[in-house]
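Take one record.
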Amino acid sequence: MDQDQGFLDDCKDKVYNLWRMFLDMKNTILLAIIGLFVLGGIFLFTKDGSAITENVVNQGVSGDVQAVTLSEKDLNYYPNTFTVESGKPVELTLDSSVKGCLRSFNIKDLGVSKYAKTPNDKIIFTPTKKGSHTFACSMGMGYGTIIVK
């Protein structure tokens, strides 16, 4: 009988140790996931969104301005293709229908990157590189094409 009790105690200890190991691992994974969300939120919501690059030659708006307003339709930018003229300032607005990561607007080829927190935040740049360029949100979920003539 003592052998059976010893065996049961050993089994009970092993099950308890496995359970503790599982709980420790689960907590670690949960903390890592929470940490990633916190860091992502800090990055997304504290970014001022200003990027000055070689293609952004005019931060102010004067003269002939090309106004473009984008909306969100079917989880993408709408319209997802638009045409502008090279060398003329573009004032791009993301209207109130645009939500989430689509408010972080990027045109990698043209060096444009800005987080437009509200529809009042304008994305102003002057394209100098002619051709078709892809624009996208920070996660690449929403995208489209800007054609610079």
Observations:
- The two ends are 91 Å apart (CA to CA).
- The domain at 66-148 is CATH 2.60.40.420 (Immunoglobulin-like).
- The mean pLDDT is 78.
